[in-house]
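G., the chain you wanted modeled:
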Amino acid sequence: MKKEIIDFLRSNHKEIHSDWQNKMEENRDQPTLRITSENGFFMMSQEFINLLLGDSLGYNTLNDKLPFFIEKTVSYNWPLSFLVKGIQVFEQVILGHLEKSELGDKDNAYEQVRLLDAWLHPLCQRIVEVYSNTWERTFSLQKIALQELSAPLIPVFDGITIMPLVGTIDTQRAKHIMENLLHGVVKHRSEVVLIDITGVPVVDTMVAHHIIQAVQAVRLVGTKSMIVGIRPEIAQTIVNLGIKLDQFETKNTLKKGMEKALEYTNRKLVEIGE
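Predicted structure as tokens:
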């Protein structure tokens, strides 16, 4: 940027900072921003404007601090549109102050806009790029974490494990379920595994096919499996679709499945009187 504009920003950075903060507060109408506390919003806004002003004054703040700032905005679920709006408001505030200064004659107006745009446009592109990369990396890590939690194998007794399934089962998740199941029954030396589908909202042909595949794979490694949690509406759907589960042990509740699993391992529940 031209030296006189840099000198102007350095001399008026407090006023520009204050005006920008007030205007950004007016734009705080998105749900993801409203849930941020007043203090949190103020601190994040302070950090953002300091990055912009620091870059304008040649302090190289973007390379040093931008990635850390963007990581925080992603963790706060701040939309990218708000950051872009922040840059637009920043330019408007600077131009507004320039108009009121001795540099604000009409002859210089076009040149000032051109200089600011030449600086802020690449800056905006840089922020979009870092935000997108950070969001994609965060999303990938969250997806991996959710996959690890989506099909846990829980040992409840020696030789007996349970895999509770919750939510929709697609092809990718079904593959993950089978991997967890096979790895888990070997790791825990399971004699019986209960696959609980109580939390699966819909059992169609594809879901049933994946569950059958998982049961067959478990049988190959020497573990008996049982499908539990078959609700009446699920049972009716299975019958209407012509899906045959005759070759597998099934129970309508986890409790009944557990009782049967104990029988398979030569144990049983005994009530103790007072």
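The domain at 154-264 is CATH 3.30.750.24 (Transcription Regulator spoIIAA).

Shout if anything looks off.
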